[in-house]
Amino acid sequence: MPNVWHVLPRPIHGLAPMEDVTDTVFRRIIASCGPPDVFFTEFIHTEIVLENRGDRPGVTPRLEHTDAERPLIAQLWGTEPEEFARAAARVAGMGFDGVDINMGCPVRKIRRKGACAALINDPALAAEIIAATKTGLLPVSVKTRIGYEHSRVDEWIGFLLTQELDALTVHGRTAAQESDGPVDWDALSRVAALARGMGVRTAILGNGDVGSRDEIDRRCAETGLDGVLVGRGVFADPFLFATDGRAGRFAAAPADEKIDLLLRHLRLYRAFWGDTRNYEILKKFYKIYLVGFDEAEELRDRLNHTRDYDQAEAVISSWSDGNR
Question: What proportion of the chain, given as a percentage, has pLDDT over 70?
Fold first, then answer.
């Protein structure tokens, strides 16, 4: 099988990994609206990948996927190289196209564990984790940030570029910034220039507040990046990656189209997760669909007060009956 990072079109338009967002349900919804060039899972701890579940070891629902979600990269996090090695091997047997190591999540409780963005301050452990993950025989990538408290492109990114990664995604903020403040596209330009100067084959992607296909292309042209992963931007437009003219039109779409898409998401979420995942997680998606039409805010508020799938369907049905 060819290395996925070598065959993806440039510039790469990717859906960024997001916790409690990019599960198989949301990925299928986005695939139906217009698939990106590459998908990522939510970030999943290596211990979860290695759990034994009866006669299906390691088959956590967080790793379930369909062909519609390909190419698909499993994003893992943790601190134990040996666990990364075993998890990468298990993921390889499940049909994934690559493994991405989370070295960028800025959540403080995660950093305190020495994981994700904390690895920016521990390059020795980061190198051990990368080497261990490579034993799983899938393409290996890293998603990180430009620095921990301050931008350290030359030191930190320069170090990662010596690790013979297949791809490297860099969020244009420091870990300390979390999701606040401007994205430093000048730093991301420096990342791309550094990679070119070192002559590495690593695909270099940026990340941070990009909201359209056109902006992906523009940012890549301006910076020399090979691609961009879009995170929150897809909340404003589930059709962002569509190439058939639907991108950019969702905000002005009729209410019934938005509600139909919401119902598809709700019913697929219910069919897949049932009672095994907190219904409350689903509520974060209501704000994606319920915008830009009369009474959208009121309907969203009513749904946010529901406690289960049946209540949600009843609220939507009542609203639809009253607006025909």
Answer: 97
Q: Which residues of 231-248 are buried (b: 16+ CB within 10 A; e: fewer)?
A: bebbbbbbbbbbeeebbb
Q: Given 247, 270, 288, which residue is the final one in a domain?
A: 247
pLDDT band with cut points at 50, 70 and 90 for residue 58: very low
Residue 323 has which token pair?
A: 């607006």
Determine the structural domain holding residue 223 and report its residue range. 4-247
Could you give the CA distance from residue 117 to residue 121 in angstroms, rounded to a whole number?
Answer: 8
- CA 155 to each of CA 151, 152, 164, 186: distance values in angstroms, whole numbers, following the listed order: 9, 5, 16, 16
Give the whole-angstrom CA distance, residue 225 versus residue 195.
10
- The pTM score is 0.95
Q: List the end-to-end C-alpha distance of the chain, in Å, as a whole number.
A: 51
Active site residue 33: no
* Token pair for 226: 């090979």
Q: Are residue 155 and residue 291 in the same domain, yes or no?
A: no
The last residue of one of the domains, among 216, 247, 278, is 247
Confidence of residue 57 (pLDDT cuts 50, 70, 90): very low
From 33, 105, 116, 220, active-site residue: 105
Mean pLDDT of 158-183: 97
Q: Compute, in degrees rounded to 10, the torsion defined by CA atoms 295, 268, 208, 197.
A: -160
Spatial separation of the C-alpha atoms in residues 130 and 95, rounded to whole Å: 20
Mean pLDDT estimate for the chain:
95
